[in-house]
Design the sequence.
């Protein structure tokens, strides 16, 4: 049956003269060339520009080299679909990183995916199925050439864009443990909720009224999620290979435990970015010490993270009592284990005070700390892990006071700060305005559950007009609301 398809395709295929085989290190995608050489086409295992790769894939399946200006959104997505169907039909799932949900063009053009696909092609893995797939998709391909849009936007092909799933948050909660009242952690620092650091050193009665009265589990979860945002950014930006949701959750849990700096410098990350997924398991096994000794709690945590990364199984997902520890590495006693205390890059845990230069356009407003009934200082820290400089904490206190007014007006609904203070480096990285009020710790991007950004913005506008909130900048976005205390009126966006 397969030979009949090949012969039929040979009669229909028309050789292309527009393809330069020297540019790709292979021969044109024609059935004639394949039949004569009795070999599959060979390619350099290197990532290409997104559209270049899409054109190669389409030619691979449909024996026609399209011009760049003929490529449209429908064809780009078709390229991804064809490859994914070929991967599944050829049972090469282990070779090509899986898409998070469905195969998309964004997934297709990731560097790790491209390289894995090239290796599969060089091993002739898709030769037995590509003619059949071309026949199945031929009609859709011909229609797609005359439909779709020429322009397309996709995220950075080398960057993941995950956020921690509910199951991932639950996993981290299980490690941290919930405490409704203030307590001193093993290192002697004042803590509450799910390991939320209130301040360095023992609790001393100077904590906010909210914390002294104790917090609910819902509030503790909000604080945890705010903290996790910085680790999500670290994993998304540092990992350059494709991750599924379970792998991402495992790495966020790991980064949350060892710190962003340690994660970014780890051998684990280097090996993973070299497409060595298996090595992650043994590398996790190295991070089981604290204070110079192996800690049972870290053994359990690395065990769970390893199972999640390898098998995609969250604790409680299966009745199988599977112990991964001891199988992550066969070296055991020879492992050069890492002590997480030596690599903890949280400035507060190191007893460091950030000494950052304040932009010249920002007025200084120094304060030792900032807190209110429902907000704590670290909720406003930069998402790269940098704490708010002492010279700007007075602004944070003022901002907290304004948000307390808003919270009351909204019926005491919790407010999540998704972005507060930003360093110049981080602000530049995410494309923030050159003179953003975030650089002065005078701005907050906020979300309110079960309350649309439009309603939040309208409420702020009304409170400003009645003198209950300070005048400032109000930005309306589709998923969040920006409010700052610059002192002069500024409005932008619409929702």
Sequence:
């Amino acid at each position: 049956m397969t030979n009949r398809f090949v012969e039929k395709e040979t009669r229909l295929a028309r050789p292309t003269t527009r393809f330069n085989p020297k540019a790709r290190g292979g021969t044109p995608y024609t059935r004639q060339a394949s039949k004569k050489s009795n070999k599959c086409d060979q390619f350099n295992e290197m990532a290409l520009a997104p559209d270049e790769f899409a054109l190669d894939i389409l030619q691979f399946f449909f024996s026609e080299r399209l011009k760049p200006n003929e490529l449209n959104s429908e064809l780009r997505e078709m390229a991804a679909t064809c490859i994914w169907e070929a991967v599944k039909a050829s049972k090469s799932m282990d070779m090509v990183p899986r898409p998070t949900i469905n195969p998309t063009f964004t997934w297709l053009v990731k560097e790790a995916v491209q390289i894995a696909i090239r290796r599969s092609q060089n091993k002739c893995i898709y030769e037995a199925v590509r003619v059949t797939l071309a026949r199945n998709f031929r009609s859709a391909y011909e229609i797609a050439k005359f439909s779709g849009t020429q322009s397309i936007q996709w995220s950075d092909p080398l960057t993941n864009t995950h956020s921690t799933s509910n199951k991932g948050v639950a996993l981290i909660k299980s490690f941290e443990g919930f405490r409704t009242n203030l307590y001193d952690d093993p290192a002697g620092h004042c803590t509450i909720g799910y390991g939320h650091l209130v301040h360095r050193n023992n609790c001393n009665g100077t904590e906010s009224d909210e914390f002294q009265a104790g917090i609910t589990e819902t509030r503790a979860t909000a604080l945890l999620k705010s903290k996790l945002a910085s680790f999500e950014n670290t994993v998304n930006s540092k990992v350059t290979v494709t991750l599924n949701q379970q792998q991402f959750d495992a790495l966020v849990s790991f980064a949350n435990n060892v710190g962003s700096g340690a994660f970014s410098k780890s051998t684990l990350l280097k090996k993973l970015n070299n497409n060595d997924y298996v090595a992650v398991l043994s590398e996790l096994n190295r991070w089981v010490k604290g204070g110079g000794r192996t800690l049972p709690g870290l053994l359990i945590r690395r065990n769970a993270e390893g199972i999640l990364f390898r098998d995609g199984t969250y604790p409680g997902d299966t009745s199988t009592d599977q112990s991964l520890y001891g199988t992550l590495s066969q070296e055991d006693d020879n492992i050069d284990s890492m002590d997480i205390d030596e690599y903890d890059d949280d400035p507060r845990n190191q007893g460091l005070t950030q000494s950052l230069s304040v932009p010249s356009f920002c007025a200084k407003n120094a304060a030792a700390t900032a807190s209110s009934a429902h907000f704590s200082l670290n909720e406003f820290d930069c998402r790269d892990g940098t704490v708010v400089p002492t010279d700007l904490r007075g602004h944070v206190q003022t901002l907290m006071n304004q948000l307390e007014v808003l919270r009351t007006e909204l019926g005491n609904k919790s407010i999540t700060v998704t972005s507060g203070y930003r360093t110049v480096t981080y602000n530049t990285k995410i494309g923030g305005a050159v003179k953003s009020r975030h650089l002065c710790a005078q701005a907050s991007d906020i979300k309110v559950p079960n309350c649309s950004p439009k309603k939040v913005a309208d409420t702020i506008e009304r409170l400003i007009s009645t003198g209950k909130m300070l005048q400032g900048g109000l930005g309306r976005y589709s998923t969040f609301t920006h409010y700052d205390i610059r002192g002069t009126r500024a409005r932008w966006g619409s929702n």
Remarks:
- Residues 2-144 form one domain.
